[in-house]
Protein 1
Amino acid sequence: METAKEERARAKRDQIRAGARRVFLERGFMRASTNDIAAEAGVSKQTLYAYYASKEDLLVDVLRQIVMEGPRAPLQGLEDLEVGSEEELREVLVERLKGIAGIMMSAEYLALIRIVIAEVPQLPGLGDLFRSTIPEKGIKLFSELLERTNAQGVTAVPDSEVAARMLVGSIATYALLDGLLNPGNPRPLPDERIHAIVNTYMKTIT
């Protein structure tokens, strides 16, 4: 349970991220100054830097919050999830992939990812930070889930990291082709495609 101090700190961090998200979406990364972000968030620059050492840290944390935190975050709680049967695993994967696809195909998330991609040539550290914080974290969580299902005899995966990349990559191709390369008109991934992906995937791991 959070202490009152921790709750205040979390609320302040949420306040900063919300302001930063609006500024990044409106102005991009390079034109978004810390003065702009602090003003939009309603905090001082001193407070901003008390929570985030750089704009890079802040942008990546905005993206991390979307994917990792909150009741609708598709990776929330995955590290503690126990699955006891193939059907249960199938249901878990469908639910989680629906959440991932919903986020990755949202106009706001795609706009933020385009910002990251545009800035990486000038700021390679931003790419490293994003990769380690979000996609690699997601792959690790799915890999660990598959290791647990292997141990329980639900799956027979020889390389859980490769299998996790296959799973995440199946959604990433839709995000790339129908999202990032389709500006202004991202096409949501239909539920039947999610089920088809999971059904095909289950045949390779069980």
Protein 2
Amino acid sequence: MLSYVKLSIAVLLCCLITTGSCEKCTQRNIEVFEKRSGREIKGQPEWLVTVTNNCTCTQTGIVLRCRYFSTTENVDTSLLVPTRDGMCLLKGGQPVKPYETVKFSYAWWPPTVFYPIRSNVNQGCSCQKCTLENLNVFEERSGREIKGQPQWLVTVTNNCNCTRTGIVLGCKDFRTTENVDTSLLVPTRDGRCLLKGGQPVKPAEEVKFSYAWWPPTVFYPRDFNVNLGWLPCHSVRQGVLFL
């Protein structure tokens, strides 16, 4: 009986890891940041506003409270539309993707306090299966030379809508005449390279670095962990799950 329970738990974890899991999104996942630009527009101080969807699901119909909103600067109505009831519709109600930022500016004193009060979420949203196949590596020549060696530009993209950590690339025989930022890439002695110090790489995030050598190194994804929220991270290697 105990073995059956352990097996059931293992199968459940395996399913959760392969499919992923998005946390429940609410307006609390929408962050509003506001700061002075240092400029004045028609005698009024200008304010820069950044609204970020900090959820792994797309949100639509985002409404901000913006009581007494006034401005001497024209605001792009595709980004913000004030209504008569002290509300502002963000981005025309259009989708705001996971970790997407919407930025606008206005000019007035005192500043408006913006805060989210309503949004719509696709409640069926869930993280797609994260595999080595949707962790993409793109490499191209820059056209420059560093100490007699051609420079290569490398872009690693997380094309899964779950955050990944501990990304390891295969990088056998990696060499370079160009200093590589160790916060982006750290080679080890076993033909592997740790990307971004193992720190989180968000959905659709790109990590870029460059190096110089001939022949170029063939980088390819080897390992990663998936952030499943309340579950611990489990390693995925060559498409095989290790619990």
